């Protein structure tokens, strides 16, 4: 008897997760490292599920192309802005995702990105390796301390709260945050719930840790960039679409803010001719917020289990409700 089929839209998925899928499904892997849109549309018809990531847009065209066999989309991510929830609902397709698992890893990345941006680690490393390090004068390669600074976290969900806890050990002078509701755990750290405009005006370091949706698209725009302190450092570990990137580039070019640390950007991968690439006060990471072996392995296993749960008609470990 033929088994239900799953399409895996990427290679190098941890073996433990692949083993789980192989036990229950006929698994079709994409041809290269990452499936193109055209390949997905070609291979999705007749599939029960798809194992995908935020690089794969899951929209009505794809769901319709899959046909009625498609019952589940499993995304190896906490974010699901790449999935058209209305279309999923219309065609009765369920969505599994991987919240919580990556919280601490993404928070670790954020702290690292913040420090390396404000303390100029990559610029300093480059200076050493290219022989620019000749003397040690008092202000050479100096950045600004996190200690005694005002840190603003935009979006205090699980990841934002974890970032707040980690940064609280840095003896900062004030923690500000935005959120739909007051967060007792952040309040207990001395965190103050403010508006986004108050946050951008008052913070030395601004961290974006919020989901991308219609309300948060371009939450950092020209107007808000203009309100920032001239030494403010902006860190983004959410989604590129949270920032009007052209406005950010302009603000950086005109030295209107201090710098930026971006783990996410628009588009991804960032073209090498982007002005951001050449800026010394910009640290760019290739979307590696959750990229620890332990975390990605657990995310992959959960994604597989989410897909299998639909086959078994049991509750998914993590399902997006819509
Ligand atoms: C993903 C992410 O892990 O979780 C998210 O929303 O963007 C990342 O952590 C990464 O894109 C791999 O799928």
TrEMBL record:
State a single Gene Ontology molecular function.
Answer: hydroxypyruvate reductase (NADH) activity
**Which key words are in the record?**
Oxidoreductase
Short name of any one Pfam family annotated for the protein: 2-Hacid_dh_C
**All copies of domain D-isomer specific 2-hydroxyacid dehydrogenase NAD-binding, residue ranges:** 111-289
Give the taxonomic lineage as stored in the record: Eukaryota, Metazoa, Ecdysozoa, Arthropoda, Hexapoda
Which ranges carry the D-isomer specific 2-hydroxyacid dehydrogenase catalytic domain? 10-320
State the name under which the record lists this protein: Glyoxylate reductase/hydroxypyruvate reductase
| One GO cellular component term | cytosol
| Family according to the record | Belongs to the D-isomer specific 2-hydroxyacid dehydrogenase family.
Source organism of this protein record: Aphis gossypii (Cotton aphid)
């Amino acid at each position: 008897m033929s088994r239900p089929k799953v399409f895996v839209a990427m290679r190098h998925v941890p073996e433990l997760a692949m083993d789980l899928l192989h036990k229950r499904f006929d698994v079709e892997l994409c041809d290269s490292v990452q499936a193109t849109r055209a390949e997905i549309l070609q291979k999705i018809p007749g599939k029960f599920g798809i194992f995908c990531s935020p690089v794969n847009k899951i929209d009505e065209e794809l769901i319709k192309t899959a046909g009625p066999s498609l019952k589940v989309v499993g995304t190896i991510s906490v974010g699901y802005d790449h999935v058209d929830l209305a279309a999923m609902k219309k065609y009765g397709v369920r969505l599994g995702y991987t919240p919580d698992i990556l919280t601490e890893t993404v928070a670790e990345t954020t702290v690292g990105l913040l420090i390396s941006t404000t303390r100029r680690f990559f610029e300093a490393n480059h200076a050493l390796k290219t022989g620019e390090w000749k003397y040690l004068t008092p202000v050479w390669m100096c950045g600004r301390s996190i200690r005694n600074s005002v840190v603003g976290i935009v979006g205090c969900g699980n990841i934002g709260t974890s970032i707040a806890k980690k940064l609280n050990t840095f003896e900062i002078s004030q923690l500000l945050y935005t959120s739909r509701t007051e967060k007792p755990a952040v309040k207990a750290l001395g965190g103050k719930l403010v508006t986004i405009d108050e946050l951008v005006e008052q913070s030395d370091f601004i961290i974006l840790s919020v989901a991308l949706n219609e309300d948060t698209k371009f939450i950092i725009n020209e107007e808000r960039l203009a309100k920032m302190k001239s030494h403010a450092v902006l860190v983004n570990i959410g989604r590129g679409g949270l920032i009007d990137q052209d406005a950010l580039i302009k603000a950086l070019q005109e030295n209107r803010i201090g710098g930026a640390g971006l783990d996410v950007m628009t588009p991804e991968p960032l073209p090498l001719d982007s002005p951001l690439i050449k800026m010394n006060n910009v640290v760019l990471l290739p979307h590696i917020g959750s990229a620890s072996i332990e975390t990605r392995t657990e995310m992959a296993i959960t994604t597989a289990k989410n897909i299998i749960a639909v086959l078994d008609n049991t509750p998914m470990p993590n399902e997006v409700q819509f």
